[in-house]
Each structure stands twice: as structure tokens, then as C-alpha cells.
Amino acid sequence: MSPSHEKRRALTPEALAMMDTIARTGSFAAAAREMGRVPSALTYSVRQLEDALDVLLFDRSSRQAVLTSAGQELLHEGRRLLQELDAVANRVRRIATGWESELTLAVDDAIARRALFDLMEAFYAEKTDDGSPPPTRLKLRVEVLAGTWEALLSGQADIAIGVPARTPSPAIQTAPLGPMEFAFCVAPHHPLAEAPEPLAAAQIAEHRIITVADSARQMQPITIGVLPGQDVLTLPSLASKVEGLLRGLGCGSVPVSMVRRHIEAGRLVHKATYEGLRSGTMYYAWRDTGHAPGKALAWWLEKLRNDTTCKALVEQHEGLLL
């Protein structure tokens, strides 16, 4: 057996607990009494551990159980490992009650972050049967357009929030979040700011449009609002798109609730276009396995059935843009 395997076999929870007991009681004799062992057996176990690790853990010149620097490090790391083992055991017990080990949320970039973080805060405040928080680890993915669908369909996400259309697969369940209204905006110093309304397609095509890159890798990317021959500035997020609009780098449409304060303050100009009022229904979606969802997914689905929650997710943009 290789030396690394020998060391691994020696570092058992029992050995780490033994080190903790000796250090805490201050002597081999006291530790042996607490552990219900004879001192000689405890001394033999320590020597076996020292031989396996090829280090000296206790100062043999002292009558007390004085740790060497190597022993102190093993004690420190051992206590941390024992705590982690306890945490894992508790987590496994809670997961056995129906909580998923991990739940991945694929969220479209157009979804309001403040409302989303309110939901995450409420999730962590939930109590399981033993009074502890849910053992499920949440993982958040921010996607754009078809990328939100792709994360769900590929199994990389358990629920998608903010998909732009109904399910492309019979194995997926969908429900509406609600309508999201978009505003075509330019900076006050942009050439289109003073142009008569509604703006014609030919007028808009003469100016650079700012778009957000679709995050899909395998599915056909979705492109919205780009006219033939139009110059395009592609940015990674809606927050960066708003910044680009404020700087006059181009024109483009963004959720009204995301730029309302900028429009009211005069930092952006909302222009009517040939398309009229642009609005689309956003949905949330999850995979239908034919079985009852785990407790974490069921919690999120229950919250998303609330009309107030859904409205907040499509409208509550102000104050938190990530």
C-alpha cells in the first residue's frame, strides 16, 4: 500500500477525536478515562498515528500532553474536519426527508434582481422539520433569451425563470409570470432624441443598435430588434446595455421598469416607433419528470404561483442591477 493510502487510513474520525480529547483533557490518563480506554492502549494508538504520518505529535519530554507544532496543526485541521463530517451527516439526514442537494435556477437577465433576492432570502429563512434551514444549495445562472431555455432543456437547471415563450418540449411545464413592457430609448444627445415620432424602421436602421448577446451555446440564438444592414453593438447584459444607452453609444429597447427612473430624470428619452407598444409575456418553466417535485423545487413553484411575486419579478428592477 502506498504511503498516501497509509496516511489516509490513519486519519480516521476516531483518531481525530482521540487527538481532540487528549488536547482538551491535558493528559493521556484523563483522556483514557473519558474515552473508556486504558492509557497504554491510547499511547499505542497515538504512536501508530505518528508512525503513519511520520511526525511527532506530542512532546515526550513533558509530563503533560503537550502538542508539537505538527500536533497543533493536526488538532486544528482535525477539529475542522470533524465539524464538516457532522455537517455532512446532518445534511444527508435532511436530504433524506425530500430536500434536493442542489437546485439550479436559470434566470433571464430581464428578471428583476431585487425580487429574485427577496425570494432567495425567504427560501433560506424557511425551516425544515428539525428547525434548521433547507439543506438545498441554490445555484443561480443568469442567461439571455434562448440561453435560459437551453439551461433547462440540457439539464443544467431545474427551473427557468423568465423564458420568452411557451415550452418547446412536451417534457417541460410552463406557467406565465406576466407581461413585460419594453421601451425604445436613446440618450438626450443621440440624433434620434429629437426626431419626430413614431420613428420609422428606415430611421432606426441608420443608427447603431445595442443588443445583449444570447447566451445559448447549442440552440439557435434569438435576435430581437436588429434591422437589415444596421450597425450593432453587442453587450453581455441588460445593465451594460442601459449604460451604453445612457452614454449615447446606440439605441435599443429595454424593460420599462428598468429605465423608468432614467426616463423620468431626463437621462434617457423614450421614443415611439413603427412597432407601437412592445410587450411580451414572460414565463417560468420546469422539467416534468412524472414524479412529485422535491421540496426545494416545490417551494419555488408555490411562490411563483403568487401573482404579486410574479409581478415583482418582471417589474421590480429599481435599486439592484447585477
- Summing up helix and strand content along with how strands pair, one would put the structural category as alpha/beta
Order of helices and strands: HHHHHEHEHEEHEEHEHEEHH
The percent range for helix content is 40-55%
Estimated share of beta-strand residues: 15-25%
Number of helices: 12
- Poorly predicted regions are none
Domain unit count: 3
CATH-defined architecture of the largest domain = 3-Layer(aba) Sandwich
First-last Cα distance: 52 Å
The tally of beta strands, per DSSP, is 9
Describe the main β-sheet briefly: 7 strands, mixed
CATH class of the largest domain: Alpha Beta
On the 0 to 100 scale, the average pLDDT is: 88
CATH fold-level topology of the largest domain: D-Maltodextrin-Binding Protein, domain 2
As a whole number of angstroms, the C-alpha radius of gyration is 30 Å
Shape call: elongated
GO molecular function: DNA-binding transcription factor activity; transcription cis-regulatory region binding
InterPro entries: LysR_HTH_N, LysR_subst-bd, WH-like_DNA-bd_sf, WH_DNA-bd_sf
Keywords: DNA-binding, Transcription, Transcription regulation
Organism: Roseateles saccharophilus
Summary tags:
single chain, 322 residues, alpha/beta, Arc Repressor Mutant, subunit A, D-Maltodextrin-Binding Protein, domain 2, 3 domains, seven-stranded mixed sheet, two-stranded parallel ribbon
